[in-house]
Design a protein that fits this description.
Layout: E1 4-6, E2 19-23, H1 29-36, H2 46-51, H3 56-65, E3 70-75, E4 78-85, E5 92-97, H4 106-120, E6 126-130, H5 137-144, E7 148-153, E8 159-163
Antiparallel strand pairs: 1-2, 2-3, 3-4, 4-5, 6-8, 7-8
Helix pairs in contact: 1-3
């Protein structure tokens, strides 16, 4: 499946290379697992993911079956970030970016693509768990994009936010 290359180059990319967004493929899963441990906030190591039953193999299978629709972004010859959602319930499961690619609009673009995919699957309400700490980057990021608190918290203490995509 062809990717969508965004040109001109995104501001802030030192190399000036274009940024490629495309739907995730099963073979991206190993890189996703590795990247997850390299994020600035809320990094999760490969070992921790494995303890939760998440491996490159299980993640790749969820991509293959369509359980985890997602998008990846490549820049400067490497994966810059990704976002995945749950086909089953409309949860945005993860949005992760390497630190050099923060604050460039890449996270917003990835989230937008996954939200569109989930809405196309019929989800009228999307949700995610997010840090309740106003000092965290994610706290302001999602709220700025229109996500609202439900007033509920998940078992990890993350605040549940919801979003209602426009039809």
């Amino acid at each position: 499946m062809p990717g969508a290359t965004s040109t001109p180059p995104w501001p802030g990319l030192a190399s000036g290379e274009p940024v490629e967004f495309r739907p995730a493929r099963p073979e991206d899963a190993a890189e996703c697992v590795a990247l997850r441990g390299q994020t600035r906030e809320n990094a999760v190591s490969r070992e921790r993911l494995e303890s939760l039953g998440i491996t490159a193999q299980t993640w790749g299978e969820d991509i293959r079956t369509g359980e985890l629709p997602g998008h990846v972004c490549w820049a400067n010859g490497r994966m810059a970030g990704y976002c995945f959602g749950s086909r089953t319930d409309g949860e945005v499961v993860v949005l992760a970016l390497l630190p050099p690619f923060e604050a460039l609009g890449i996270g917003k673009a990835l989230l937008h693509r996954v939200c569109n995919d989930l809405a196309a699957l019929g989800h009228q309400r999307l949700f995610l768990g997010c840090s309740a700490d106003p000092q965290s980057r994610s706290y302001g990021f999602y709220r700025h994009l229109g996500w609202r608190s439900t007033g509920e918290f998940d078992a990890r203490g993350d605040e549940i936010l919801e979003y209602f995509p426009k039809p």
